Amino acid sequence: MRVETTMLVSAIWHGTYAGYFMSFGVVAMCAILEDVIFKLLPVDAETGERPKWFRVVYTHTIRCRGFEMLATGFLLKNAADVHHFWSSIYYWLPLLCIPFYIYSVKTAQPKSKPKKSRQE
């Protein structure tokens, strides 16, 4: 919930345009998408890197095209214009993020609270 809260505060900080809220809402899901993808895709033991095909696909889709899509929320500002543009590209980024977001919620481990030590 930290990322979601941070993005909500950022949207309010930048202004009350609906496009900001739409973009910042998807940014939170993108952060979770990245976390899940990086946990699921193993690192090669020899090179210490993920496969080259993954780096190319990830960089050119989620990173570049995704952030271009999110920038439209700041450029167009009102919800109708942002919706019109996002629907012309089939809302691909939010639709890609939603299953990974649900997966992260379902597989999240509850955080254990550190035990307080007694000093006598």
Automatic annotation (TrEMBL):
This is Uncharacterized protein. GO terms for molecular function: lysophospholipid acyltransferase activity. Belongs to the membrane-bound acyltransferase family. The keyword Heme does not apply. The chain crosses the membrane at residues 88-105. The keyword DNA damage does not apply. Keywords: Membrane, Transmembrane, Transmembrane helix. GO terms for biological process: lipid modification; phosphatidylinositol biosynthetic process. InterPro entries: LPLAT_7/PORCN-like.
